[in-house]
Write a structure and sequence with these properties.
The complex is a heterodimer.
Chain A (H helix, E strand, L loop, with lengths): L8 E4 L5 E6 L11 E6 L6 E4 L13 E6 L2 E6 L8 E8 L4 E3 L3 E5 L1
Parallel strand pairs in A: 1-9
Antiparallel strand pairs in A: 2-6, 3-4, 3-7, 5-6, 7-8, 7-9
Chain B lengths: L2 E5 L3 E2 L5 E8 L9 E7 L6 E7 L4 E3 L7 E6 L4 E6 L8 E8 L13 E5 L2
Parallel strand pairs in B: 2-10
Antiparallel strand pairs in B: 1-3, 3-8, 4-5, 4-9, 5-6, 7-8, 9-10
Classes of the chains: A mainly beta, B mainly beta.
Chain lengths: ~110, ~120
């Protein structure tokens, strides 16, 4: 199964909002409401930021939000902060596996 | 607090079998609905889901790697073991152990990962 498509990089200034897209097909993103988003600082364990399209785990800032339209899911980070600089990747459940996105490097200018 | 930690060799020769162990705490793999899985990320590439084992010993494998993978659990030791046969340099990756909460489709939390290099 092919990886979900994400932009390689997204940048923004502190306080701004940015959106990362995650495009799949009707067999993954479009077919299930089981899209997750992870934040990954190199050398550390990836951290779940959003699950089931738009749910935040306990302890995750409400500056992070998720949505989905058709075969594309999105992660929005509002009020961008220096600590948000990291790699972000999406994932989608399918009946036979879980497929991940190509990953997006977020840079805070 | 749930934690997971991966362990295993850092260097493996081509054609050998790779054995990785995930040792976890904060939950029991005998609890209904809970699962533990493995995910890897080759350098510079996307993450790839490998395998998942549930509390009831139900096992799921990546269709593309199924013939080479075996996942097992030892509930008494709080460990999950992944074996991969006939490794190749393309199997060089950071391997992560992950927890699947009861009744969910998400992976949370993840271990820190262990880098495995396949080289002669």
């Amino acid at each position: 199964q092919s990886a979900l498509t994400q932009p390689a990089s997204v940048s923004g200034s502190p306080g701004q909002s940015i959106t990362i897209s995650c495009t799949g097909t009707s067999s993954d993103v479009g077919g299930y409401n089981y899209v997750s988003w992870f934040q990954h600082h190199p050398g550390k364990a990836p951290k779940l930021m959003i699950y089931d399209v738009n749910n935040r785990p306990s302890g995750v800032s409400n500056r992070f939000s998720g949505s989905k339209s058709g075969n594309t899911a999105s992660l929005t980070i509002s009020g961008l902060q220096a600590e948000d600089e990291a790699d972000y990747f999406c994932s989608s459940y399918t009946t036979t596996s879980t497929v991940f996105g190509t990953g997006t490097k977020v840079t805070v200018l | 607090q749930i934690t997971l930690k991966e362990s295993g060799p850092t260097l493996v020769k081509p054609t050998q079998t790779l054995t990785l162990t995930c040792t976890f705490s904060g939950f029991s793999l005998s609890t209904s609905g809970v699962g533990v899985g493995w995910i890897r990320q080759p350098p510079g590439k996307a993450l790839e889901w490998l395998a998942l084992i549930y509390w009831d010993d139900d096992k799921r494998y990546s269709p593309s790697l199924k013939s080479r993978l075996t996942i097992t659990k030892d509930t008494s030791k709080n460990q999950v073991v992944l074996t991969m046969t006939n490794v190749d340099p393309m199997d060089t990756a950071t391997y992560y152990c992950v927890h699947r909460p009861r009744g969910s489709r998400r992976f949370d939390p993840w271990g820190q990962g262990t880098l495995v290099t396949v080289s002669s």
